[in-house]
């Protein structure tokens, strides 16, 4: 009996030992998983902020256009930015007319970008004109623009014969005419299509030099051709502003003494219809060389790589990726990034159910990478200006164009080449982490405010500590905001901050503020 009793005790001890070992293994497994998840260093702050700001949803943030921003409480103290003087309604910092006239006129230098020095930067909010309303939805916006939004009638007189724009009651009407096609851009494009393969997707991206009000680009859109239109800010007041108000891609620019900010092999088609470029001036001021194509192995190989017809081109592997020309990217990483951004955009649409309804026509991606956000959100209702920061580690703009998208290089320490109130939605992924120690956060945020339309939206995606600072600052910019968790849950340090610019217009006793 004694022997039997000892056997029972041993079995009991063994059972207890097994339970203890299993328990310890489970504990250390969970601890390891907790550490690998990133929850730890700095992320307790993230959870606390998540609790404070109710990150799980955005019920109090309205994306509708009703001329009153949604108010939410914010316990964080915010700097207060005052409205600029009403005379700055259409202020374009790097194309300011007064500053431009101090530069030489030869080679159109005075029409190029000339940004103000730090001591002349304005730290105030650009007001919208009195009576400003949300633009008409596309495609009505192609043909009609509210007069109150761009209150300039000069082009209706100067270009009356050419049928650019007509003033009718409280709206401008755009018949589609141009300097060389007064009967309308549609018929003109039909003529081009008789000799250029526009209809089959071979031509997807186009460059329109000296675009006027961008009717050529406007009518190409229904043929699934995306044009980058540009014109200077000159005596033809607000031509690029009209283009963007119509919902057509455009930037302020001139072909003068500086090369255009696009990589080689960007466009399938280029257009110059009486664009007034002095091609033969100064012994032909244009550089007497042609950008070389990449070498080929045989006569059948396409230099630079063959592009698929659009829309297949959007997700086909771009030649710059397949050839290994873009440092840090492979075919596999390109395809993986596309999957990630499809997931991100799907989550954005849950946060803001108006994303693909036509509410947001003009969209900007401030740090576009490979253009995967634009590809994931692609729709006939919208277009995306893909911006590749000049300080980015890798130049990816060529890939963006190979996908059949458009974009531009830009340094966000300076103002963008556009008029105020020209974008409906801005996507800012990692922008403030990228520009940390490069320029002040308020400089970038105030530029975003300048180009964002009243009641326009912003989607910030960044590390939580960065977004807390952003949230604090935009609290003093007449913006409403809400912090949301990453789609993979609250333990991920990267968060999403969604914001809406409130509706307000000129007319008060506004004073220009400087720091």
TrEMBL record:
Its EC number is 2.1.1.-. It comes from the Eukaryota. It is a single-pass membrane protein; Single-pass type II membrane protein. It is found in: Endomembrane system; Membrane. One of its GO terms (biological process) is methylation. It is an enzyme of class 2 (transferase). GO terms for cellular component: endosome; membrane; trans-Golgi network. Coiled coil: none annotated. The keyword Protein biosynthesis does not apply. InterPro entries: Put_SAM_MeTrfase, SAM-dependent_MTases_sf. Keywords: Glycoprotein, Membrane, Methyltransferase, Signal-anchor, Transferase, Transmembrane, Transmembrane helix. The chain crosses the membrane at residues 15-34. One of its GO terms (molecular function) is methyltransferase activity. Belongs to the methyltransferase superfamily. This is Methyltransferase. It comes from Dendrobium nobile (Orchid).
């Amino acid at each position: 009996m004694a022997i039997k009793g000892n056997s029972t005790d041993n079995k009991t001890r063994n059972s207890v030992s097994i339970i203890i070992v299993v328990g310890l293994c489970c504990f250390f497994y969970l601890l390891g998983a907790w550490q690998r998840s990133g929850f730890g260093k700095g992320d307790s702050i993230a959870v606390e902020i998540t609790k404070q700001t109710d990150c799980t949803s955005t019920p109090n943030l309205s994306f509708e256009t009703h001329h009153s921003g949604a108010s939410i409480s914010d316990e964080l103290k915010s700097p207060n930015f005052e409205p600029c003087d009403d005379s700055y309604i259409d202020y374009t910092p790097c194309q300011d007319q007064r500053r431009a006239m101090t530069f030489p006129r030869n080679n159109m230098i005075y029409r190029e970008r000339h940004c103000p020095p730090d001591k002349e930067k304005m730290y105030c909010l650009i007001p919208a004109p009195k009576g400003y309303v949300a633009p008409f939805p596309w495609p009505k916006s192609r043909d009609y623009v509210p007069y109150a939004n761009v209150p300039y009638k000069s082009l209706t007189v100067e270009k009356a014969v050419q049928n650019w724009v007509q003033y009718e009651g409280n709206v401008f009407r755009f018949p589609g005419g141009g300097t060389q096609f007064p009967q309308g851009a549609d018929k003109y494009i039909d003529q081009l299509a008789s000799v250029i393969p526009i209809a089959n997707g071979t031509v997807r991206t186009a460059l329109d030099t000296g675009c006027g009000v961008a009717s050529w680009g406007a009518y190409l859109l229904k043929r699934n051709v995306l044009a980058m239109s540009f014109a200077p800010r000159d005596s033809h007041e607000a031509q690029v502003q009209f283009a963007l108000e119509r919902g057509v891609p455009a930037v302020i620019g001139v072909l003068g003494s500086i090369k255009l900010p696009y990589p080689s092999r960007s466009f399938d088609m280029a257009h110059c219809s009486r664009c007034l470029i002095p091609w033969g001036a100064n012994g032909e001021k244009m550089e007497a060389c042609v950008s070389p194509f990449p070498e080929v192995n045989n006569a059948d190989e396409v230099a630079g790589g063959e592009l698929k017809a659009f829309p297949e081109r959007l997700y086909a592997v771009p030649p710059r990726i397949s050839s290994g020309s873009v440092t840090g990217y492979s075919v596999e990483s390109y395809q993986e990034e596309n999957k990630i951004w499809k997931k991100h955009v799907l989550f954005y649409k849950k946060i803001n159910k108006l994303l693909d309804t036509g509410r947001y026509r003009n969209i900007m991606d401030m740090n576009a990478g490979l253009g995967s956000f634009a590809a994931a959100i692609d729709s006939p209702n919208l277009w995306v200006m893909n911006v590749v920061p000049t300080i980015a580690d890798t130049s990816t703009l060529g890939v963006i164009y190979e996908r059949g998208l458009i974009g531009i290089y830009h340094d966000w320490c300076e103002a963008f080449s556009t008029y105020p109130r020209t974008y409906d939605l801005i996507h800012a992924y990692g922008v403030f982490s990228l520009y940390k120690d490069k320029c002040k956060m308020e400089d970038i945020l105030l530029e975003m405010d300048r180009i964002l339309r009243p009641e326009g939206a912003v989607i910030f995606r960044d590390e939580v500590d960065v977004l807390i600072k952003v949230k604090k600052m935009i609290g003093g910019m007449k913006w409403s905001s809400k912090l949301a968790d990453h789609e993979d849950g609250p333990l991920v340090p990267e968060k999403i901050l969604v914001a809406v610019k409130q509706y307000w217009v000129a007319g008060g006793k506004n004073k220009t503020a400087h720091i």
